[in-house]
Amino acid sequence: MRDPISLELAGPLGGAAADAQRILRSLPRWFGVDSALLQYAQDTQRLPTFWAAERGCAIAFMTLREHFPASWEVHCMAVQADARARGVGRQLHRHAERWLLGQGARHLQVKTVAAGHPSAEYAETRSFYKALGYEELEVFPDLWRPGLPVLQLIKALNGAA
């Protein structure tokens, strides 16, 4: 891991779709489908979104979706390419968890590409979420599209964020 950086954490805030789009475009191996990228950026306008900034410039965001009052999902999370491996995602996630606990949430889930897919980038993603305490729950072979297995991970929120 490179040197940690001093972050300004905020949220939930109304989205800044242009900032989200800039961050997502720095990660083409994760967000290479333009229509999906644009939708994730637009979703920051309507879903609770948390931001990490360095020197006033957004470098990461995390958008959450409520399924039930106690059960939420990481809808989209992205750390700008040149800020990765510096603890930004971990700090941003902890910030969002504290907010979720204040809302009475007890479970947080995330979906990502399953290990059956040969993507090294999504292997990193799975490792990141597992390091945050997520556990594998189920694989959906065709949830997003045939041939793209989706892994659902879940984390119990217990105040130890």
How large a portion of the residues is in β-strands, by DSSP E? 25-35%
- Tally of DSSP helical segments: 4
Average pLDDT confidence is 89
Unreliable spans = none
What portion of residues is helical? Answer: 25-40%
Taken in chain order, the helices and strands follow as EHHEEEHEHEE
Known CATH architecture: 3-Layer(aba) Sandwich
Largest sheet: 7 strands, mixed
CATH topology annotation: Aminopeptidase
- Per the principal axes of the C-alpha atoms, what is the gross shape? globular
Please give the order of strands in the largest beta sheet. Answer: 1-2-3-4-5-7-6
Structural category: alpha+beta
Give the terminus-to-terminus CA distance: 20 Å
Give me the count of strands. Answer: 7
Q: How many structurally independent domains? A: 1
Account of the 3D structure:
With 161 residues, the chain is α+β, with helices and mostly antiparallel strands. The chain has one domain: Gcn5-related N-acetyltransferase (GNAT) (Aminopeptidase), CATH 3.40.630. The protein has 4 helices and 7 strands; from the N terminus they run βααβββαβαββ. A 7-stranded mixed β-sheet has the order 1-2-3-4-5-7-6, with helices on both faces. The protein is globular and about 40 Å long. The two termini are 20 Å apart. The model has no long low-confidence stretch (mean pLDDT 89).
